[in-house]
Amino acid sequence: MLNRRALFSGSVATAMAASSLSKATGKEVPLDFDPRGTIGVFERLPSLQVESELEFITGYRSWMATSLYRQASKRSLDLLRLNGIDLSKDGDLDEIVGILTEDHTISMVVHNLERSQEQFWKLVKDECDRNADVLLEEMADAENRKPGRLLLNKDLDVPDYACYEIHIQPGGYVGDRFAGHIYFYGTSVVLAGGNQQDQLQVNWARGVPRPADGKVKRILDQGTSCGQFAHALKGRFPEAEVWGNDVAGPMLRFAHMNSLKLGKDINYVHELSEKTQFPDDYFDIVTSNLLIHEVPGEKIKEISAEAYRTLRPGGVYYPLDSYSGDQVRGTAMSHYNAWRNYRWNHEVWWMEYYHYDLAQAMREVGFKVDENGPKGRSDTTRNVIGYKV
Ligand SMILES: C[S@@+](CC[C@H](N)C(=O)[O-])C[C@H]1O[C@@H](n2cnc3c(N)ncnc32)[C@H](O)[C@@H]1O
Asked: Which of 202, 203, 225 to mutate to test the pocket of ligand 1 (most atoms within 8 A of CB)?
């Protein structure tokens, strides 16, 4: 398999890459870009041009998200005060949205975040399409290689709720052959370029508790996408067999290829987290990271129930996500931002999740719940942990 990670630019590297691909596929493979090495665990994109454009957008969004967002937040408070809204209470969302949408500063912040997001998705997508032959060959070549297995299911009945272009990613998770590449490089921009060692996932994986008896033989990461959290789990529990599942084939194809390149032994299976192929009492730990805000409420409960079924007694369920239900400590701007995410960022299930009582749903499917787990994604939230007793 071509390992662009091991190569750096220049004619020698290009020739080596082309030759290794040709060997792997038995065909003459012309290479139309110079492999350019890595930044952290990220293999660099084929062209410097696109990489610089992405970095420009990263910087622009960081400035927006700090300086301008702060001004917009202050402005939102002033506006609500002027309109006689009592900020010690949550306030009526429709009323808040109505008032804030009319303000130019606030609208500009919101729309610039969305437009720049459209831009970076498109930049990555176009770059992948331009280099389609090479990138498709890479994924195809990786498909049957070990360590780790990739179990794709071309007959999987993908539910409609999983087909939206969530966070305006073109094609969504299931509708573009390069969805994994697009998500992987695109979310790096969202994370302000600060995740080049997958350090966020590594940090979040530190919070996953061991079962009381200390035994961790098998782990499932639901909705694993590009496998970044699965990698972090393998790092934290090297003795465990780690599985990642996802409804989207393109995400898993990228994930498996990337795991191979990083030498990580992870198994991927193409299935729904609410209906898995695994037997009862199979896993010691089941996790998810950022899956449950992207499915309808009734599916969150089904996904939790499936985690409960497949966990062994004593097993731990660790669904990590943004705050919801009682954990929401709303300011006017945070409510507005939640609505913005739903309305303009195409986070179709966000408002439903925002009001969702995750702990209660987990109790209803059988878990003993600790609502006071390790610190969550913001200073005011804690992760909810389920124990199968
Ligand atoms: C925001 S991404 C998850 C990010 C990833 N866990 C990480 O740590 O980087 C959500 C993922 O959930 C997947 N997904 C959505 N509904 C699903 C379901 N019912 N079963 C399995 N995967 C699902 C999507 O295809 C997508 O890859």
From this structure: 225
Residue bearing the CA closest to ligand 1, atom 14? 223
> How far does residue 60's CA lie from ligand 1's centre (Å)?
27
As a whole number, the mean pLDDT across the chain is 87
**Which range among 60-69, 112-121, 227-236 shows the weakest confidence by mean pLDDT?**
60-69
Judge whether 163 and 174 are in contact, CB under 8 Å: yes
pLDDT tens-digit series, residues 113-148: 899 999 999 999 999 999 999 999 999 999 999 999
For the domain bounded by 45-389, which CATH number is listed?
Answer: 3.40.50.150
Ligand 1 atom nearest the C-alpha of 295 is: 16
Q: Which two tokens stand for residue 165?
A: 């272009």
Please list the residue range(s) of the chain that carry CATH number 3.40.50.150.
45-389
For ligand 1, whether the C-beta of 225 sits within 6 Å is yes
- Residues 6 or more apart in contact with residue 40 via CB below 8 angstroms: 196, 197, 198
Q: Which of 235, 173, 191, 180 is nearest to 54 (CA)?
A: 191
What's the 32 CA to ligand 1 centre distance in angstroms? 32
pTM (2 d.p.) = 0.89
Name the token pair of 183. Answer: 């998500």
Q: For ligand 1, say whether the CB of 76 is within 6 Å of any of its atoms.
A: no
Residue 16's pLDDT band (cuts 50, 70, 90) = very low
Instruction: Please compute the mean of the pLDDT values over residues 225-251 and round it to a whole number.
Output: 97
Contacts of 200 (CB under 8 A, 6+ apart): 191, 194
Q: Helix 11-25 and helix 132-142: axis angle, to 10°?
A: 50
Residue 104 has pLDDT above 50, yes or no: yes
Q: Whose CA is nearest to atom 13 of ligand 1?
A: 223
173 lines ligand 1 (CB under 6 A): yes
Q: Averaged over 265-294, what is the pLDDT?
A: 97
